[in-house]
Amino acid sequence: MILSSVTAVSVYGQEADSLQASAPDSSAAVVVPSRWTKSWVFNLNGNQATYRDWSEGGVNSLAFSTFTIFRLRYAGKKFGNTTRLNLRFGQTRLEDSGLEKTEDMIRISNKTEYFLTTEQVSAFAEVAFRTQFAKGFDEETGDLISNFMSPGYITESLGLSFQPNENFSAQMGMALKQTFVNADTLDSLYGLGEDEDFRSEGGIDVVIEFQKEVFKNFTYTAEFNSFTNLLIPIRSTDVIMFNRFTGKINSFMSSMIEFSFMYDDDYSSLLQVKQVVTLGFNIQIL
User: By residue range, what is the domain housing residue 55?
Assistant: First the structure.
């Protein structure tokens, strides 16, 4: 990640010097469009219910979830760089039971591009990181099944990217993927041998993203990500797919429906499914 960031900073400096050298006299008052675009969204959702001598019955509950998405992009004449941060966390509590996790994700990526014929097609180098904040437990047995950096994933990829418009992008490249498991008791759940904390794989990484406003103030966002290890059967390809429907109620309230799927036969041969419906406050910071 550090190497990619340093490369991006160097590219920005070179292009900035070039622009400054070719800029017209300030007296001409020419406005040069910014090559930077940025966005930052913060969302907070919550609900609480308390019952006392309520004839219809009910369970006291407290729940909250929050997420923030940050994106910073630079697009020069020949080079571009995109940094993204996606953080999610949520917990719930029923009656006298302890807090249980409902949302948990840390995703950070940095992608540097060299535009080929146009900005639609580019050669890219990307570093991506994924893990979670807190402990996760099996809903049936109560056993620990995840924690911070258990597992944690780092993927470095080189390849080609295609983005015909701002709604759709696809990229494919050769990649190295590292899996980290700090908790010794969880090694076998994520394909590591006994007393192993780290595993590296080589393969092909594919990422497809789509986002479009399908109705007024109602946006559909999809992301497909797969990693295929070239040394094992293709049926063991790791797949993650996110589907989100986001509706804007007014300037500060929004709703979201999410259907997510994940397949990783190191953990389970079954398709993992997550469905979330939220209503809360949405703040556009940038």
Answer: 2-284
> Which DSSP helix (H) or strand (E) runs through 44?
strand 36-49
**Beta bridge mates, 47:** 63
> Is the model's pTM score more than 0.90?
no
Helix or strand (DSSP H, E) at 13: helix 2-22
Q: Are 94 and 111 in contact (CB under 8 A)?
A: no
Domains in the chain, number: 1
CA-based torsion, 115, 120, 122, 127: positive or negative: positive
Residue of 183, 179, 102 whose CA lies nearest to 144: 183
Per-block average pLDDT, block size 10, for the chain (286 residues)?
46 48 52 84 86 83 91 92 96 82 94 91 96 90 92 96 93 96 90 87 96 91 95 93 90 87 92 87 80
Across 76-151, the runs of DSSP E, i.e. the strands, are 79-94, 100-115, 121-131, 136-137, 144-146
Could you give the 3-state DSSP secondary structure of residue 166?
Answer: coil
Q: How many helices (H) and strands (E) does the chain have?
A: 1, 14
Check which CATH number belongs to the domain holding 107 and give it: 2.40.230
Q: Which residues lie across from 123 on neighbouring strands? A: 114, 160
d(CA 13, CA 83): 17
Would strands 144-146 and 152-165 be described as parallel, antiparallel, or unpaired? unpaired
Contact 125, 158 (CB under 8 A): yes
Q: How far is CA 254 from the centre of its chain?
A: 20
**φ/ψ of residue 219, rounded to 5:** -115, 135
